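Appendix C: a fully annotated inverse folding record. The material below is reproduced so that readers can follow the format used throughout the book. The structure is listed first as tokens, followed by the designed sequence.
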């Protein structure tokens, strides 16, 4: 990691160097850009749900040295991108001769000709999210859309003939509700040309992370070079707020006007960004984004693969981390039920060393855990071998980009028609994520039959202490627990009969 502590923090915006000072340590990328006159980046919800603020960030790639990744500019502190490179909707257009009108980017062109702009407020965010998918190296897996009789025809409901994955736009909300022309534009874009500067940029390595100390008005944002240095700092400053993707802390800053005397960033620490597959476990670094985990695992852990598309939106998954989702201790986080079903453990580190804690013993109360002051989550370990029958059921008001009313994860081993082991993780039905121990006991050692499942479903409905709130009633939550097990049984028996 390069050291930037002896120079003022800077960021590259649309190819131009920009000093971050005099922005406050909590200033978001969104506010920083708008202060510079780049008003295509809009504020809608200030919570990472609408996507009007989407911008592109150059990040380490999976299939190429660099990936263009879309993130919510409203959540990320601009100083967190010290030394990094971003592109806004204004930077997508290609400039020609001096004084000449910039040429529209292909995604901008398709949005325009297919009527996808409508009122225009959300369009720049859609364009940036669409551009990230446009530049995904393995996208063009299907026919060239120009060869189709109708460029807007699709392979399935969520994938176009050009390989465009509509999940890339799941975090962008159109206030005019005109999604059809936006989808048509997405399904009509071709492949980047050889002279496309942003496509060529993928062949070069992204900017290296830099160590940063930025202080203003007695408030500081700090990123250290190593995990050891970070842990020593956390021992000195146990009150510090630890951030990775800022998808949770950013909401606190925007909506609740929270400020911190010291924010410590861990998102680029190499020790927290490793993914290792051993003979008896998979270890996932706590600062890897969910998108990075999804692409690196590539389906190796099926239950996680089922979770990822249902976790918030692609924009959020491009920043959110396992460490952050577990660290907040939220009872409605989507990853804890899955990790509980997988019998995962967390590796906690402080300046004195490390300890491994089973996730089932990690949560101690509402947003509380066994994690001590000065300690952070370094990694999550999932034991191998994996259960062979798994499922993740998320019950929410919206299909995507929503908070769970109830989340249920199943991991069962069924041999010769008998349930040998059963692990069930629950979210949204207690003050913490929990294991459904009574329901597990009602399944283990019993035949995988309609009678067993109905009995276990009755037990499952009584698990936890669900409450009434604006998302769902306690009775509904309880009903959904039992229904989830019945759904799993139906799916497995359908597969056998098919």
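Designed amino acids, in order:
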């Amino acid at each position: 990691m390069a050291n930037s502590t002896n120079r003022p923090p800077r960021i590259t915006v649309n190819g131009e160097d920009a000093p971050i000072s005099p922005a406050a340590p909590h200033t978001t990328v969104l506010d920083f850009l708008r202060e510079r006159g780049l008003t295509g980046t809009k504020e809608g919800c200030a919570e990472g749900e609408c996507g009007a603020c989407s911008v592109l960030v150059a990040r380490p790639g999976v299939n190429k040295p660099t990936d263009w990744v879309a993130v919510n500019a409203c959540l990320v502190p601009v100083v967190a991108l010290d030394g990094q490179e971003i592109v806004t909707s204004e930077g997508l257009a290609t400039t020609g001769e001096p004084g000449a009108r910039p040429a529209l980017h292909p995604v901008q062109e398709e949005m325009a000709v297919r009527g996808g702009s409508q009122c225009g407020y959300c369009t720049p965010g859609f364009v940036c999210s669409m551009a990230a998918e446009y530049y995904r190296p393995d996208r063009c897996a299907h026919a060239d859309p120009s060869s189709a009789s109708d460029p807007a025809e699709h392979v399935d409901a969520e994938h176009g003939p050009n390989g465009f994955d509509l999940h890339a736009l799941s975090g962008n909300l159109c206030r005019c509700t005109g999604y059809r022309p936006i989808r048509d534009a997405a399904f009509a874009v071709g492949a980047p040309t050889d002279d496309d500067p942003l496509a060529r940029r993928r062949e070069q390595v992204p900017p290296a992370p830099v160590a940063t100390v930025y202080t203003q008005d007695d408030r500081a944002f700090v990123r250290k070079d190593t995990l050891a240095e970070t842990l020593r700092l956390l021992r000195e400053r146990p009150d510090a707020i630890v951030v990775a993707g800022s998808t949770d802390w950013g909401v606190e800053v925007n909506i609740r006007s929270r400020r911190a005397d010291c924010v410590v960033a861990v998102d680029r620490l190499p020790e927290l960004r490793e993914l290792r597959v051993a003979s008896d476990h998979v270890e996932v670094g706590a600062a890897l984004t969910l998108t990075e985990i999804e692409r690196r695992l590539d389906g190796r852990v099926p239950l996680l693969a089922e979770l990822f598309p249902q976790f918030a939106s692609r924009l959020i998954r491009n920043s959110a981390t396992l460490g952050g989702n577990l660290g907040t201790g939220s009872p409605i986080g989507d990853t804890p039920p899955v990790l509980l079903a997988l019998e995962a453990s967390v590796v906690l580190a402080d300046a004195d060393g490390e300890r491994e804690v089973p996730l089932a013993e990690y949560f101690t109360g509402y947003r509380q855990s066994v994690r001590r002051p000065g300690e952070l989550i370094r990694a999550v370990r999932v034991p191998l071998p994996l259960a062979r029958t798994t499922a993740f059921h998320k019950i929410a008001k919206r299909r995507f980009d929503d908070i769970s009313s109830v989340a249920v994860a199943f991991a069962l081993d069924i041999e010769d028609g008998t349930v040998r082991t059963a692990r069930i993780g629950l979210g949204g039905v207690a003050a913490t994520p929990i294991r459904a121990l009574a329901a597990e006991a009602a399944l283990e050692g019993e035949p995988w039959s309609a009678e067993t499942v109905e009995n276990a479903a009755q037990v499952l409905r009584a698990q936890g202490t669900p409450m009434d709130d604006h998302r769902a009633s306690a009775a509904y939550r309880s009903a959904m627990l039992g229904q989830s097990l019945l759904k799993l049984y139906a799916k497995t028996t359908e597969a056998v009969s098919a």
